[in-house]
Every structure is written in C-alpha cells, then in structure tokens.
Design brief:
Blueprint (H helix, E strand, L loop, with lengths): L2 E7 L2 E7 L3 H15 L2 E5 L4 H5 L3 H10 L12 H4 L8 H16 L5 E4 L3 E6 L6 E7 L10 E6 L8 E6 L7 E6 L5 E5 L9 E9 L5 H9 L9 E8 L19 H16 L21 E3 L5 H9 L4 E4 L18 H23 L6 H13 L10 H32 L9 E3 L2 E3 L7 E3 L2 E3 L2 E3 L11 H11 L10 E15 L2 E17 L1
Parallel strand pairs: 14-20
Antiparallel strand pairs: 1-2, 3-5, 4-12, 5-6, 6-11, 7-10, 7-12, 8-9, 8-11, 13-21, 14-17, 15-19, 16-18, 20-21
Helix pairs in contact: 7-10, 7-11, 9-11, 10-11
C-alpha cells in the first residue's frame, strides 16, 4: 500500500512516496532533504528601500563626497566607513578616493544609480560560502565601470568580520571587506558590459576566519529564516570611474529637486551639529499630546503668523510623513513680503554667525560648517533678495528654524555647565537641568533632530531660596516646626516653551505647536 503526500517550499511542489519497504523510504527521504536544504531568500523589489528612505541615495553620495578632504586625501575615518581592510588594500582605497574626488569636482553631479531587479541569497549548511545572485536589468549604464554598493540597514554590533567576495562579474574577481561597527557601506568594483543585456551576477561570499559563518549569515540575512536581507544593494556609476569619458546623465529619480536634497542635507546637518547627549526613550506617540490646531504654511499664510514663527525661540522638529506614503516630497513654498524677507535674511545671517562661532570654539564639529554652506547653496537664498522664489523662501525658513533650535540647545548646555561649575556650600538648590528624549519613535516621518532637550527641574527646596512664593515659604516653616505629615515644597517647572513641529504631508506644509513641552524656569511650590 502506497501513500502520496505533498510538501510545499515557496513555489516548488515535492511529492514523497512512502512505502513499507525501508530502502525505498530512505532513498526518497534523502532526496527530499537534499532538495529542501538550501535556504533561498528573495528581495523582489529592492527599490522599496529607497521609497521608504528617500534620502538613501543622497546619503550615499554625501558619504562619498565627505570621504576625502579638500586636498583630495582620504580622511582617517573613511576606510572603516566603507569596509576597507587596511593600508595594504590599495585598490579599494583608490576606488573610494576616485569616487570621492570625482563627486567633489562635479559638485555631486555626474552620478547615476541602478537597482537590481531582484536579489537572491542561497544558504546551504554544508557550504562555507553563501551565494548571492543579483539580477540586473538592461541598461546602457552597464557599459560603464559599475561599482556595487552594499549598504547596511544597521551597523554591526558584535566585533568585526572579514569577508571575501568572489565572482567572474567582479574586477578583480576576488575582493575583500572588513566590517566593523563603523562600517556603513561596502564597495565592490564590477566588470563593464559589452552590450545592453540583462545580467546575473553570482557572487560567492565567505568569511575569512573559520567558525564565523554564522556571523556572516547574520550580516547578510539576519541569521533567521524568513528575515530580511540586511544589506541593501545598489549599482553606482560615475563619470570619473567609467570607461566613457563623457558626462553621465544625472538621475533625478531619487534626488529630483533641490528641495529634496535640501531636506536630506538638513537632516545630516542636524545629526552632525546637535549636542551628543544620552537620551531616554519615551513610550508614547507625540500626536497623543495636546496640540494647538495646525497652521498651514504656504503662499496664503498670514504675514503676522509668519513673523511670529520667524521670531519664535521655541525648539523645532521636522516631520515629513509623506516620505513613506507618496514619494516624491512636494516642495513647500512661502510668499514673504519684502520687509519680512529682509528680516528672515538678517536672522539667518545672525544665527549662521553664532553657528560658525560654535564651530570655532570646538563645540560643533568642523563638518557642520561645510554642511551649512551646502544648505545655503541648495536653498539659493540671498539676503535682501526680494525676487526669491517661494521654494527658496521655504528652504531658508526651514534653515532658520534649524539654526535657532541648534543655537538654543548649545546656549542651554552652556548655562547648565556654568551652573554645575559654580561654587556651592551645600547641596544643589532647585534649578533647571537637562532631560534629553528620543523622538524617532514618537514622530512619523521624522527628519530631525533625532532627540530634543525638554529640561527638568531638580534640587533642594530648603530656605533661603530664589523664586519661591509665600505659600512655599509658610509651608516650609510649618514642616520645620515638626509637622512632617505635610508634603514639602517641590522643585517644579514654573514656565514652559512650546515644541513646534513642522509637518509636510499630502495636503501641504503645517506648523503644529505642542504647548508646555519644554521647561524654561524652575521654582519651589
């Protein structure tokens, strides 16, 4: 008597015949296990990563641009960021250097990208290597010398890993990478194609050190069955490294407008400039907090409202929730009067001077100054330019709010340091302290900053005190007379600043104000 059973593995149907004959049963089972052993993972649409993170390509081009200094030499941190193993790996260093210098020379133009149509990862337990197959679509770009970029979704957290890539599609056929917690990208140089045809790149990936295969699997596919591939692939072409010396047509599929590049650069500027402090995660959504009605920012926004926002000192965060749902982002526009445009220019100039002074004092990294200059170029805003277009005004407005937020953050940090360094004859008295919280999980489509300082009040409420009212004085006296069952005065916020959230969604640009968010004055009550 024979029984037929069906097993499904993706789209493959396997029939197993079971018999009382032991030999027959064993042979069929061996065939069944051998067929199921390879673990195949498929990314059907690698472009999806770019839609979910529209700064992906812009961030890559910026990282390549920043890999070298103005003298054309690689920065000390660049090899680790791009997985280059050592000083002896001269070919990889040369590729990175050529890409970086070319992107700098052409002001980030002359770059084209191409997505693989699909990526397959085959993992067999009895093989030391893991096979990765890239299906490449037809493209004239493949006639140029391609650079395969593997971008990390998240940095390596456990130690370091040295990897060997082998393929007839690579030039040279064998290339290496050294991955650490600082590695953001891996660059592999490929062979130019002779014709405009579809290609398959089969690349064998193997860890150099024995016993580290599981670590390699963790890097490539997360180490778990059904998990996503952790490396995002992209083919990059540059006029500087191609065999054709003509200028490569610049793709606008990802950085289509100056506004989008401006927003991506603004996020990087905030990341590079904000004070690095320990931040406590919050377990609630920002939209669950009380808010004033959203105010539209656009060509019809009232002059009075725009003047109030420009002159406001409240901290600001930037949220562009439509990035994940309706890419590309629509550029915002403003219509400022000549008088308000002049005021915007003056405040922008003043805050830029303060920012450059922070850089000069060493409080802000030098790279922030370069990014600030890049933002000015992208905004195309000139002081006293009454003919500035609405999109240019909008970018200048965002830059001003970012600079106001940064200078405010460093002013608070300076005051807190001075308070801690001041003389004290007893325990700390009631005063303002720093409280930094993460915003990444609170705000949908957060552009930046990633964290903000809400401040908090800490310290003793013993007499004598400043900023104490009559009730607190009498309450303290009452408790000191032995009435210990009463609650004593507590160090609490007395005044607050709002938190401003600039939102761009499908309906336009809006300013949402969250009142009473940032403590700015403390007292005993």
């Amino acid at each position: 008597i024979m029984q037929q059973e069906k097993f499904y593995c993706n789209c493959l149907t396997i029939c197993k015949l079971v018999s009382e004959n032991g030999l027959f049963y064993k042979t069929e089972m061996k065939l069944y296990l051998r067929l199921l052993r390879p673990e195949i993972k498929n990314i059907k649409d690698p472009k999806r990563t770019h839609r979910d993170a529209p700064c992906f390509v812009d961030d890559l081009v910026a990282a390549l641009h920043d890999a070298t200094g103005k003298d054309g030499e690689l920065l000390a941190s660049s090899p680790a960021s791009f997985g280059i193993c050592s000083e002896s790996d001269s070919s990889s260093r040369l590729v990175l250097s050529e890409l970086s210098v070319g992107i700098r020379r052409n002001d980030r133009r002359g770059v084209e990208v191409l997505d693989p149509a699909a990526v397959f990862v085959s993992d067999e337990d009895d093989q030391e290597s893991i096979m990765v197959t890239f299906d490449l679509p037809q493209s004239q770009l493949l006639k140029l010398k391609p650079v395969l970029v593997l971008a990390f979704k998240s940095p390596l957290t456990d130690g370091e890993l040295d990897i060997i890539f082998s393929s007839q599609s690579l030039q040279p056929n064998t290339q290496s990478a050294c991955i650490s917690g600082r590695t953001l990208y891996i660059l592999l140089t490929g062979k130019s194609s002779e014709g405009n045809v579809e290609q398959k790149w089969n690349i064998s990936v193997q860890a150099k050190s024995p016993g580290t295969r599981q670590s390699l699997k963790d890097v490539l596919i997360g180490g778990k069955s059904g998990s996503d591939v952790r490396l995002t692939p992209l083919l990059l072409f540059s006029a500087e490294t191609g065999t054709d010396t003509r200028q490569v047509w610049v793709s606008r599929s990802f950085f289509q407008t100056a506004s989008l590049s401006f927003l991506c650069e603004l996020r990087r500027f905030l990341d590079a400039s904000l004070p690095q402090q320990h931040a406590e995660p919050l377990l609630l959504r920002l939209d669950s907090l009380q808010s004033l009605p959203p105010l539209a920012l656009g060509l019809s926004t009232s002059e009075t409202l725009l003047a109030e926002i420009i002159n406001s000192s409240a901290p600001t965060i930037f949220s562009f929730s439509s990035w994940s749902s309706s890419f590309p982002v629509r550029p915002g526009q403003l219509a400022l009067s000549p008088a308000l445009l002049g005021e915007l220019g003056q405040r922008l100039e003043m805050n830029e001077r303060q920012m450059r002074e922070l850089v000069r004092q060493g409080m802000v990294p030098q790279r922030a100054s370069e990014k600030l200059e890049r933002l000015r170029q992208l905004s195309a805003f000139q002081k006293q330019d009454s003919s500035a277009e609405g999109e240019t005004q909008y970018c200048a407005f965002l830059l001003l709010k970012a600079l106001q937020m940064l200078t405010r953050a460093y002013s608070i940090q300076r005051k807190l340091r001075a308070a801690r360094a001041g003389p004290s004859t007893r325990g700390p008295t009631c005063g303002l302290g720093s409280l930094t919280v993460f915003l990444t999980d609170l705000v949908s489509g957060l552009l930046g900053p990633q964290s903000t300082d809400l401040n908090n009040c800490r310290g003793s409420c013993a007499i004598p005190l400043n900023n104490i009212n009559n009730h607190a004085v009498l309450l303290t006296y009452h408790i000191e007379r032995g009435n210990v069952n009463e609650r004593g005065p507590c160090c609490v916020p007395l005044a607050y600043d709002p938190l401003e959230v600039i939102v761009l969604n499908d309906e336009g640009s809006f300013l949402t104000s969250k009142p009473d968010m940032v403590a700015k004055e403390c007292g005993c009550r």
